[in-house]
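[Q] Does anyone have a clean structure-token version of this?
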Amino acid sequence: MKLIRTLAVTLLVTSIASGCSWFGGDDDEPEEIKPNPLVRINEEVGLSVLWSKNIGKGAADRAIRLKPAIDSGRVYAAAAGGQVAALQASNGRVIWEQEIKDFYSKEELANAYTKDLDVITGGVGAGGDLVVVGTASGEVVAMNQSDGSLAWRVGVSSEVLAPPLVSRNRVFVQTIDGKIAAYDAIDGSRIWLYNTSTPSLTLRGTATPILFGEFVIAGFANGRLAILDQERGLARLDQRVAVSQGASDLERLVDIDGNIELTAEGKLYVASFQGRLIGVDVQSGRLMWAEESSSVAGVGSGFGNVYLSHADSRLTAYNADSGREVWNVEDLLHRDITAPVTLGSYVAVTDYEGYIHLLAQSDGRFVGRRKVDGDGIKAGLVVESGRIYALGDGGSLSVLEIR
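[A] Here you go.
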């Protein structure tokens, strides 16, 4: 029942964002909410594709958002169909390819996976000589970075939709049942488990944990943010981001599902659905500011600003110190934009049609645009060493530069 309810809410929120016919108008004839059409822009910079490789089948489940991971000059990417690949980041040369199903016996496959459904649901995590993904069978699979061979696999408490986080001798995994656990990077044995309460109705998704020194930071479906000691899983800070309001379960949704942003100065920014965007000083635990907002995709930062992708696909810049609005862009309304990422003087998002949009961090004007995957790029972008990595919903990994 929980799976059905969370899936239904995911479809609802996605439909609102991408313009399907929901709500608006009178009760008899609901108004169709359509994505804003793209208007012509004055292109000041270009987006050049350096290389592109097909990784495998795209996800059937809209909640699956597989991002590539870059580590030590290699990019690791996974497809929902079960393929994982290691490529040379400089030129896309394939180093190794692996099928997750090859790690299972025939009997295990029959019990673990249903034909034609997604295999990999969470990933990719990379670090400490490991590549780690979550599977539809409720397991975490760790592979050796050198050749893609199996290091270990272990069952977890629930489905994994967020990329596992690898840090030194630990692998941190957040599951959709409100838990985050630490596993030994060598053998996959569980070291600790942190548990939160989960509302009866949640969005189908999970925020990705991030690291801060000796701590791991995670957001949960109950609208709370936790800063946990990596060694023991004890909470240094448990901060409420949003408070549930309203009479129905749907009105009371306050999930933290989007990108959590941590700056080099130790300032943390996190947004919830139907709640708030907050700024927190991690060192002191002090709440710096809060603004009412609703977001599924999450936040990015740069140029002294915090950038928020709202649930309706508005993109807003806030002053990182005060929370004051700097600029607001509505040209991408209902286009299902992803979390903002910054590169140089620009902020970038993707949309449901597979466009990458570049805007100036200074004033939010559009400076560039390129269509990369006609099936969309719902996983968002990864920026590393001046390059943009985009894994499209059609299964193609593209690497781009701004020129």
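[Q] Thanks! Anything notable?
[A] The CA atoms of residues 112 and 137 lie 5 Å apart.
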